[in-house]
Design goal:
An 8-stranded mixed β-sheet has the order 1-4-3-2-5-6-8-7, with helices on both faces. It is 31% helix and 19% strand. By secondary structure, it is α/β, with parallel strands linked by helices.
């Protein structure tokens, strides 16, 4: 259950990065494993819940959520040092006492959080890894979802957002296998909830024509299995007629371009 690198543009390096870590130290946790099981006690004793933004980027989403829910402690994890500095800056400038960010570089999540410590995990635009051989690296793969169960309190949930319909369809099957009930789902989140907080990456994708596919899956008290039943290659979820695609999901651009060209050449040879 490792934190995988999310597919976002890297933040530009900051010349004064180390100074920023000093300036915004109040919202940066450098010893995250030491906080496992004690995040609320350490940072926000009045909080009723702990929510995790896994792959938080520059913190826009976590900060917006912290403003909306002052009685919840939000922890953002990311592998990018610059993103953590920029996220912490946002939290400090807004004087948010219920938002903290930590650098994570591939460690198992159980290193950071205790048993049933989390009430919600946000998976915003995590890397879809479309090829079959990389399926196990998806943060919504059944093995990952089963591992999250130990960290989630009874009735806790996972919310995911993606620009990729194939990744979304694959994930719905994984939630079912891993013993989660779908509380709600949508293929156009912004039409359903125009005021939903967005990530920086989400803004850019929507400007390119993406519709946000999202769902909320609740940890259920029922049997679960890691016996895979879904097609693992996300390319198999694309429509047969690729010309009907109004938007090509991240990571599939090359496949779609090459497949369309190959089919066009085959068709030309038949004429």
């Amino acid at each position: 259950m490792e934190l995988r690198k999310r597919h976002k543009a890297h933040a530009r390096p900051l010349k004064n990065l180390e100074e920023r870590y000093d300036w915004y130290a109040r919202a940066i946790e450098l010893e995250a494993p030491a906080r496992a099981g004690a995040w609320i006690e350490t940072y926000c004793p009045a909080a009723r819940e702990l929510h995790l933004d896994l792959g938080c980027g520059k913190g826009q989403f976590a900060v917006a959520q912290a403003q909306r829910h002052p009685d919840v402690l939000f922890v953002g994890l990311d592998y990018d040092r610059t993103c953590i500095a920029l996220a912490a800056q946002k939290a400090c400038e807004l004087e948010l006492g219920n938002c903290v960010f930590a650098l994570a570089d591939g460690e198992d999540l159980t290193t950071y959080f205790g048993l049933e410590e989390l009430s919600r995990i946000y998976l915003n635009f995590s890397t879809p890894h479309p090829r079959k051989k990389h399926a196990a690296e998806r943060l919504t793969h059944v093995d990952q979802l089963i591992a999250y169960r130990d960290l989630l309190a009874p009735g806790a949930c996972i919310e995911m957002k993606t620009d990729s319909p194939p990744f979304y369809e694959f994930s719905l099957v994984q939630f079912e296998l891993a013993g989660y009930d779908i509380a709600w789902k949508t293929t156009d989140l912004h039409a359903l909830d125009a005021d939903s907080p967005v990530t920086e990456y989400e803004e850019r994708l929507c400007a390119l024509g993406a519709k946000v596919h999202a769902c909320c899956a609740t940890k259920a008290d029922r049997p679960f299995t890691n016996e895979q039943t879904a097609e693992l290659s996300l390319f198999e979820y694309l429509p047969e007629d690729l010309d009907t695609l109004e938007y090509v999901p991240y990571g599939m651009e090359g496949y779609v371009f090459n497949t369309k060209n190959r089919r066009a050449k085959e068709q030309a040879r038949l004429l």
